[in-house]
Amino acid sequence: MRKDSNFYLVDNSVLPEIFSKVIMVKEILARGHEKSINSAVNRVGISRSAFYKYKDFVFPFYELSQGKVMTILFTVEHMAGVLSDILNKIASVQGNVLSINQNLPINGMAHITISVDTQSMTTEIKSLMDELKAINGIMSHEILAGK
User: Fold this and answer.
1) What three-state secondary structure class fits 73?
2) What is the pLDDT of residues 11-59, one digit of tens each?
3) CATH topology classification for 65-146
């Protein structure tokens, strides 16, 4: 990546298919499903040269957030253990919780903001967000900020 790069958030449905396939190859390699770039590009159906041409310029949104501080906003039901479950999930992937702010519940709902240092995390932010969605009592969650 060049220092003077500009970044755009673009829906992948309007991008050429090669960009999605490059990301697929990177994910296959990161998860250990293939041991070599050659076998991963063959599995996805692109050439090695296409992969090398774009690999340093195409990233999923969540990959760029690795190694940064992310602030996540939760809307949760007022019930025992929801915050504890959120914190345990973040800890299970080696996320380092830096701050927690929880508002008093109103009409059975509360807002929580949690800032997490993602540098040592053992999973991508997207995977963590998917796992958090499954916690009973979380009505919604979204990334508010990252730096």
Assistant:
1) strand
2) 778 889 999 999 999 889 888 888 899 999 999 999 999 999 998 888 7
3) Alpha-Beta Plaits (3.30.70)
